[in-house]
Amino acid sequence: MENLVFNYFMPTKILFGPGSLNRLKDENLPGKKALIVISAGTSMKKYGYLDRLTAILKEKGIEYIVFDKILPNPIKKHVMEGAKLAKEESCDFVIGLGGGSSIDSAKSIALMAKHDGDYWDYIVGGTGKGKMPTNGALPIVAITTTAGTGTEADPWTVITNEETNEKIGYGNQYTFPTLSIVDPELMLSVPPHLTAYQGFDAFFHAVEGFIAKIATPVSSMFALKSVELIAKYLPLCVKDGTNIEARTYVALANTLAGFVESTSSCTSEHSMEHALSAFYPDLPHGAGLIMLSEAYHTFFASKVPQRYIQLARAMGVDVDQLPEDERPFAFVKAMKKLQEECGVGNLKMSDYGIKEDEIEKLADNAIKTMGGLFEVDPYKLSFEETVQIMRNAYK
């Protein structure tokens, strides 16, 4: 199952652990003027994270300008606006401060700050033109305030083309952050439901990267550790967001899941979710993955049973006590139990306005926009099977 011939490229310097934001003072930053990318929400200002960052920049004699329009499901329009601002202001590096949406946007802005034309000219998949980004990207500094996407430790950025309802992941060697700060103290303010959604996003990055047919011994090692840590510590974070030890372990699981994304790949579960949130942008990505997960992993557990047995073990299940035919499905049971412990066991697509008669359209969108992930599935799904999984997940 695993590939014993593989490349390993992970060029990001990571400062990890409580208090790491303060360690930024001692780092050589990759430029003299930063574009700081944050969300349109209030939390970066309210909790003082933006002020702490700008104080460090001032101390280091680095100029900056703030771009604060990013949405929870970021859109192409804001990537283009941010890149225009970076060019006009002669910014020579980009800092993403916040969750995955802000850091992803910072990566895409860093790319477009060095290129002409439209961001979708470079996207591979859907209506993207797949052009090569010959000028690279501005250096990227990622300061994550959530434990969910692992974007601080991988090259991937997910942006929605709001004109075409295409939500597509993109990345290359230029979109790895140069420097990432993972400070769990910045995650203490994340509310319980978002802690759960984000934690499950990391969980599925690890699980999908483990079952993907391009998994390597390195990605699998990271994936199993990530799954183990999330199973143990995510419920503690949801119950008590101020538990710094639990927050640190979930942050570690998330960064490990980013390593998985750098060395393996997501599978079609992510393509299906991107279709849901491309048409329904109020749906949090992690919530969409949770909605799909039982139907999706029940289907795949019978296709690669040995991988699912290993995942169940990582979640603490004593699989050897079970009848052989039940062992792969023990993972699905443990996953459902974990979702219930985290208060997200009853999410419904219908709560976000998704209608059952749209499933075929959404499945078609998943395959057309992010078909590449279907190619790394351990079993090749047909269109009909994709529809069936999404129908089974619908409630």
Summary, kept brief:
This protein is α/β, with parallel strands linked by helices. Helices cover 46% and strands 11% of the residues.
What labels describe this entry?
two-stranded antiparallel ribbon; 395 residues; single chain; globular; 46% helix; Dehydroquinate synthase-like, alpha domain; 14 helices; Rossmann fold; six-stranded parallel β-sheet; alpha/beta; 2 domains; 11% strand
Strand order of the largest sheet: 1-8-5-4-2-3
Secondary-structure element order, N to C: EEHHEHEHEEEEHHHHHHHHHH
- CATH C-level class of the largest domain: Mainly Alpha
Number of helices: 14
CATH fold call of the largest domain: Dehydroquinate synthase-like, alpha domain
User: Over the alpha carbons, how many angstroms does the gyration radius reach?
Assistant: 20 Å
Indicate how many domains the architecture comprises: 2
Largest sheet: 6 strands, parallel
Strand content: 5-15%
Structural class: alpha/beta
Count of individual beta strands:
8
The named CATH superfamily of the largest domain: Dehydroquinate synthase-like - alpha domain
Helicity range of the residues? 40-55%
Keywords: Oxidoreductase
Pfam families: ADH_Fe_C, Fe-ADH
GO molecular function, one term: metal ion binding
InterPro entries: ADH_Fe/GldA (IPR001670), ADH_Fe_C (IPR056798), Alcohol_dehydrogenase_Fe (IPR039697)
